[in-house]
Amino acid sequence: MTIEIKVPVLPESVADATIATWHVKAGDSVKRDQNLVDIETDKVVLEVVAPADGVISEIIDDEGETVLGEQVIAKLDEKGKSASSSSKSDASTKSDSDKAERKTESKPAAKSEGKESDIKVPVLPESVADATIATWHVQPGESVSRDQNLVDIETDKVVLEVVAPADGVVSEILAEEGTTVGAEEIIGKFKSGAAGGESATQSTASDDEEAADDDNDALSPSVRRLLAEKGVDPAKIKGSGKNGRITKEDVEQHLKSDKGDNKSAPAQADTSTANLPTGERTEKRVPMTRLRKTIANRLLEAKNSTAMLTTFNEVNMKPIMDMRKQYQDSFEKRHGIRLGFMSFYVKAVTEALKRFPEVNASIDGDDICYHNYFDISIAVSTPRGLVTPVLKDTDSLGMAGIEKGIKELALKGRDGKLSMAELQGGNFTITNGGVFGSLMSTPIINPPQSAILGMHKIQDRPMAVNGKVEILPMMYLALSYDHRIIDGKESVGFLVTVKEMLEDPARLLLDV
């Protein structure tokens, strides 16, 4: 029995996804619940696991390809019979055929020689209104081969490639780079089967150059991105994929073998060029990842759509540091986790939110929505960017429960395994720039929330205590809030409450 391997149902706000990594190949035997492939969206990385024991009979979509929710990307033979070399060949041939069909079904069919057809913008994802012409890879009159990439079209989520429907010539370009275009808009003209003015020159190119061009055209978006990030020339890499295609593993292997081999020679003294810059002065341009684009858009939205103001205070951390030192060992033995500062921060914030419900509220149109529950977003820095997973019902969690919850969210964020449920919601955010050495900052609100608390570096400073100077471990607190819903009285009162709770942790137990 053959089972279809499908892309999971994507979250409501996500239009499409990208095949990030296949952990198996056609012909591999797999076990039930074994991870087959990682699929990347602009928010999370989704894992697709085997629904049963069996053999991967066919992989339809390769790494780097853009896919939709519930799209069939592979097939699994549940009987578990090993695929022979001939069946692998058949599966590979069928896979190529299927992909070619899907690739061309939204493009004009190839015309007879010399007949002109339109180059159109592909159908855009449901939530995308328009797109921008990013890069034309050809010029009018230039000869191209079938499936050669003609133009990159950029949306706010993905970069779409438009390829040649057949061998021929690009006769006219109607939309220049930087032009905003809509779905299925005509952006150029293509003449199939014709010879371009540059064909004679191109035919004199060496075999090596042609091979390099073919390799470039065959690169998947993920491989092109990696090559751009590392500044590697694809012509220097020997591909191990189908038809010599370069894979991610080929690039990574090349980088390992090339490490240390390309060190530049010391600059030589030259009196005639004494005033000129010395050494390499290179630059590289890397497209933003989906997550980085989303972060940028949300931060800009927060700055433009809220009346944001920041108020500051400082807190003496010595009482908490003394308490941690006294109970750290017994806490860890009893609960199996270390006692950190974040559990104190979360407890203090939760108590302050109870006393100042405006800070726990949000604006919805012309209404103020007061939340009678306490879900706190924790800002986590990951290799892919900043995410804010949500620790829910903090009023019902003890110190150990908070520490375990934060650790679990941080590990999932690092590994790219946060679910949409763990990223959605949240009424208030805590961000701790102190772990990176930040002494003071003005954090940006995480919409639709109304406030965010910034914690900072704990630093010894001389302080006046009862008329005497003492050296104390002090930390600055910064509360950024939306002045449309929170007044100065509430913001300052909230911050003072957090300060009092941290400077006298016994208040958390006594509710005073």
Q: What is the topological layout?
A:
Elements: E1 2-6, E2 17-22, E3 29-30, E4 35-40, E5 45-49, E6 54-59, E7 66-67, E8 72-77, H1 85-104, E9 116-120, E10 131-136, E11 143-144, E12 149-154, E13 159-163, E14 168-173, E15 180-181, E16 186-192, H2 199-203, H3 207-218, H4 221-230, H5 248-258, H6 290-305, E17 308-316, H7 318-335, H8 342-355, E18 361-364, E19 367-370, E20 376-378, E21 380-382, E22 385-387, E23 390-391, H9 399-415, H10 420-423, E24 428-432, E25 451-455, E26 459-465, E27 468-482, H11 488-503, H12 506-510
Parallel strand pairs: 20-24, 24-25
Antiparallel strand pairs: 1-8, 2-4, 2-7, 3-6, 4-5, 6-8, 9-16, 10-12, 10-15, 11-14, 12-13, 14-16, 17-27, 18-19, 20-23, 21-22, 25-27, 26-27
Helix pairs in contact: 8-9, 8-11
